[in-house]
Design a protein that fits this description.
Layout (H helix, E strand, L loop, with lengths): L1 H30 L8 H19 L5 H15 L2 H9 L8 H24 L5 E10 L2 E9 L6 E8 L6 E7 L2 E2 H15 L4 H8 L4
Antiparallel strand pairs: 1-2, 2-3, 3-4, 4-5
Amino acid sequence: MMRFMKVSMMNSEISRRSVLAGASALAALSFAPRAFALTEDQARSLITKAVAEINTAINSGQSNSAIYRSFEGIFKKYADVPTIARSALGPPARSASSAQMRSFTSAFSGYMSRKYGKRFREFAGGTVEVTGARKVKNFQEVRAVAKLPGQSAFNVSFMVSDRSGSDKFFDLLIEGISLLKSERAEIGAMLDKRGGNIDALIGDLKKAG
């Protein structure tokens, strides 16, 4: 009887350890970084399509409001908007409610479209051309050049990742200046002026840009 009880206890212990080991393995897999699958060709293809739509928009001859709507569509289609918005908001994003983050992301998307729509509006009569791509750490950098009539060409780079579950750009560099860093500083200053009130910031972002 004692021998049976010892064997039974040993079996139970082995079973318990097996379950714990299995759970640990699953947890490790869950938190393991996803394999980097985005290739240079995929990143280049994505930005080539985005650039084609940008060129169409800036040379369409449409009104400013129509171009801004076009840019918002391009931004939502090709950019990882939630990641960019959260990064731009910075630490306050951790304490914001889900509803606030949805509202902020929507307002931020419109703000970015107006702001950068105006910047790209200056490219009218010119073109943006993709020139190459390269892997940088865990993302791809797609390089492009903006050519404007009567002006010196300048560089534009798109940082592309598939970490969101689909291929999207999460940052844009114009002449080496990061959109993400610039907007983080800009949004931070706007939030400070509003005493850290995210709802007030959201309301003002809907009109800014």
